[in-house]
Design brief:
Blueprint lengths: L1 H27 L7 H7 L13 H22 L5 H5 L2 H17 L3 H21 L9 H32 L9 H23 L2 H18 L4 H24 L5 H6 L4
C-alpha cells in the first residue's frame, strides 16, 4: 500500500510540474502563436470578467503546490487519514486536463476545450466527494493544505466552464431563441449563483462562493459602462453570496479557523 501511495504522490508531483509548464507555454507562444487572452478576445462574451480577475491563478497555483508538498509530508507520517489513497489519480488527471485545455484553447479547438474543461470540473467534484471536503471537523493544517486547494480551484473552474461554453457558442454563431446576449449572460449569472449557494448549503464550501463573488464583481466592473443591467445582476449575485457566506460563518462560528487556532487545533 505504501508503494502505491509513493507512486500516486510522484504522479501528482510530476503532473503538477507539467501543468505549471503548460501555463507558461500558453503565454510564451510555445503551443501556438496565440495566447489564452488572444483567443478569449476573439470569442469574447459578456460573461467574461475583467482581466485582473485572472490573477487568481497565481493563488491557485500556490495552493496546488501546497497540496502536493503536504502529500509528501503525509507520506512520511504514513498518511493516517488516507488522503493520498482517497486523492487517487484524480489530482493527476485534473492537471493533465488543465494542460490539455490550454493547448486546445490556444490552438482554437474550442469544442474540444469545452469537453476537457468539463473533465477538469468532474475531477474536482470527485476529489471533493472522495476527500469529504468541508464535511468533517478537521484541524487547521488539513483545511489549509487539503480543503482549500480543491475548494478554491473548484470555485474558479465553475466560472471557467460557463465562460468556455459561452465562447464556444460564440464561435458557432449560436442564437438561442433570438434572445439578446445580455439576457443569456444574466441567466448564466443566476445559474452560477445558484450552484454556489448549493455548495454552501450542501457542502459548507464558503471558499468556493468567495471565488464566485470575485468573478461576479470582475464581470460587473467590465460591463458597468456598456451593459449596466449585467453589472447590476452580477453585483446582486455577489451580495447574495456574501450574505449567504456570512450567515453560514455565524452559524458555524465554533468551527472557523480563528477559533480552531485558539483551541490549538493546528
Amino acid at each position: 500500500m505504501k508503494n502505491k501511495s509513493i507512486v500516486l504522490v510522484i504522479m501528482n508531483t510530476f503532473s503538477l510540474i507539467c501543468m505549471l509548464f503548460a501555463n507558461y507555454a500558453s503565454t510564451a507562444g510555445i503551443f501556438s502563436n496565440s495566447s489564452v487572452a488572444d483567443i478569449s478576445h476573439k470569442y469574447d462574451t459578456l460573461f467574461a470578467p475583467a482581466g485582473y480577475a485572472f490573477i487568481i491563478w497565481a493563488f491557485l497555483f500556490l495552493l496546488a503546490i501546497a497540496f502536493v508538498v503536504y502529500q509528501w509530508m503525509l507520506l512520511k507520517k504514513g498518511d493516517p487519514q488516507h488522503y493520498i489513497k482517497r486523492t487517487g489519480i484524480w489530482f493527476t488527471v485534473s492537471n493533465i486536463a488543465n494542460a490539455g485545455w490550454l493547448y486546445l484553447w490556444t490552438n482554437e479547438m474550442i469544442g474540444w476545450s469545452v469537453i476537457v474543461i468539463f473533465l477538469l470540473l468532474l475531477c474536482l467534484i470527485i476529489l471533493t466527494i472522495r476527500l469529504r471536503l468541508e464535511l468533517d471537523d478537521e484541524p487547521v493544517r488539513n483545511i489549509f493544505f487539503v480543503w482549500w486547494p480543491i475548494t478554491f480551484y473548484l470555485g474558479w473552474i465553475m466560472v471557467a466552464v460557463i465562460a468556455c461554453v459561452a465562447s464556444w457558442l460564440v464561435s458557432q454563431s449560436w442564437q438561442a431563441a433570438n434572445l439578446p446576449e445580455h439576457i443569456w449572460t444574466t441567466i448564466m449569472i443566476v445559474i452560477a449563483c445558484l450552484f454556489y449557494l448549493l455548495l454552501i448549503r450542501k457542502r459548507n464550501m464558503r471558499e468556493a462562493s468567495l471565488v464566485g463573488i470575485w468573478a461576479f464583481i470582475a464581470i460587473a466592473i467590465r460591463q458597468w459602462e456598456n451593459h449596466p443591467d449585467i453589472a447590476i445582476a452580477a453585483i446582486i449575485a455577489s451580495f447574495i453570496l456574501f450574505i449567504a457566506s456570512a450567515v453560514h460563518v455565524y452559524k458555524n462560528r465554533k468551527y472557523i479557523i480563528g477559533e480552531k487556532i485558539k483551541r490549538g487545533e493546528w
